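Minutes, project huddle
Topic: does the predicted pose make sense with zinc ion bound?
PN asked that the exact inputs be recorded in the minutes so nobody has to dig through chat later. Recorded below.
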Amino acid sequence: MKRTWKDVSVPLRDGMVHWPGDPECHIKRVSRMEDGAVCNLTHISMSAHTGTHMDAPRHFIADGITMEQMPFEAVIGRCRVFELDCEDQITADDLKKLRLAPRQRVLFKTRNSTRSWATNEFDKDFVSIRQDAAQYLVEQEVMTVGVDYLSIGGFNKDGVETHQIMLGAGIWVIEGLNLAEISDGYYELICLPIKLEGADGAPCRVVLR
Ligand SMILES: [Zn+2]
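Predicted holo structure (tokens), as shared on screen:
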């Protein structure tokens, strides 16, 4: 069987959904060949946490390390996709049913993949990681955690705490995946965030096979 790479990153586009209060995503062509320019040229302006992106510890930890210092092993290699049917938040009890292991790369597929990305409106009710689950992930010593909407923590629930717990423990976080086409199981993961020097996060392209 031919195993093909599947793109689980969301397309970046002008005016796309973003975290409330964060800068908007502007992608504009500033030079157009159809207007006689010698080339096409696009200007982009957005938060480092737009679309599919990673969080560096620096996002919530004042002296945490920054994006360009991320070890490649955090984002390249075998990973496990867990499909969870949580309706609200992912809890420690939900995670205790899974087989988590130290140094594991785990991606959580929830209803976000089909529901939250279906609209360009920000979904305040997306499934997020409750702080007790964040603590459990730290205790299990996982290396990398990926989620299928814009934040590991919820909107007005555990947002700060979940980030502080996971980033404080050095877990590398991938946010904004779309896992709609992916089922539970093991995959090869390649996720490469752009090399933003000193940054607390960076957009990335993520593929699974
Ligand atoms: Zn982020």
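Observations noted during the meeting:
- Residues 49, 53, 55, 175, 201 surround zinc ion (CB under 6 Å).
- The chain has one domain: 6-208.
No decisions taken; revisit at the next huddle.
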